[in-house]
Amino acid sequence: MAATDKVRILVVGDSGVGKTSLVHMICHNEPMLNPSWTIGCSVDVKLHDYKAGTPAEKTYFIELWDIGGSSSHKNSRSIFYSPVNGIILVHDLSNRKSHQNLRKWLAEILNKEGKGIENGYYDDYDPEQFAGNQIPILVIGTKADLAETVKKETLLSRMSSIAEECCADEINLACNQVKYLAPGSSNAVRLSRFFDKVLERRYHSSNNLQTSQSPVVDRRRPAMHYSKSSHVD
Ligand SMILES: Nc1nc2c(ncn2[C@@H]2O[C@H](COP(=O)(O)OP(=O)(O)OP(=O)(O)O)[C@@H](O)[C@H]2O)c(=O)[nH]1
């Protein structure tokens, strides 16, 4: 069997927002019962059919790089940021601060050279950076089950800002309920469309170079869990 092409998508956001739970649900189509804190980075893989149901259909590996959100690892996590083909920004719908911090996470990835780090984040956030950014981005709000108690207006006023700034699509879900990513649902379609966009840019457009050509220097050797699931959302 020929080697399957792959892309790397970074999954970032504050500690405890549900990144590990989210990645598990995407890759294994089931909730994760007891996620442990991610130290460094953990990688899980999903098989995705690009442009499913069309003559252009092709299967790829989607690598989801779940970056531990703890500020104690702030100085070393940039080693996971290159190359990057797509970014999933994760926030907790019941925690406003986690949404505000997404700008800092994005700035940290885009500023991976290491300038301006303060308080655990890169603070030289520049909105212009997002406008020129070519990396596909998806914003995912977790814990929708808990957020139901949050005032609807509060939720709406917080939504969309960063997604609009970087022309990203948005999904809200609960990682403990698979119905939020049920096949055919609007969330599943958006997620699949995002994966297609990442693959399109990496393998099917004239601008198909890696975002960074520098080799991945990964001294921590994150565990690779290759899911054989060919479930297509
Ligand atoms: N109620 C509810 N709990 C969730 C949801 N997603 C995650 N959790 C819980 O939130 C806690 C943290 O989840 P993790 O997936 O470990 O969070 P993380 O972002 O990977 O955290 P770090 O590894 O510290 O970066 C766990 O107890 C999860 O079970 C959700 O959608 N709803």
Automatic annotation (TrEMBL):
Keywords tagged on the record: GTP-binding, Nucleotide-binding
SUPFAM superfamilies: P-loop containing nucleoside triphosphate hydrolases
Database matches in InterPro entries: P-loop_NTPase, Sigma_54_int_dom_ATP-bd_1, Small_GTPase
Keyword Nucleotide-binding (UniProt): yes
GO molecular function: GTP binding; GTPase activity
Region (Disordered): 207-233
Family assignment from sequence similarity: Belongs to the small GTPase superfamily. Rab family.
Protein role: Required for KRAS signaling regulation and modulation of cell proliferation. Regulator of KRAS prenylation, and probably prenylation of other small GTPases. Required for lymphocyte development and function. Not required for myeloid cell development.
Protein name stated in the entry: Rab-like protein 3
Naturally occurring in which organism (per UniProt): Lingula anatina (Brachiopod)
Gene: LOC106176779
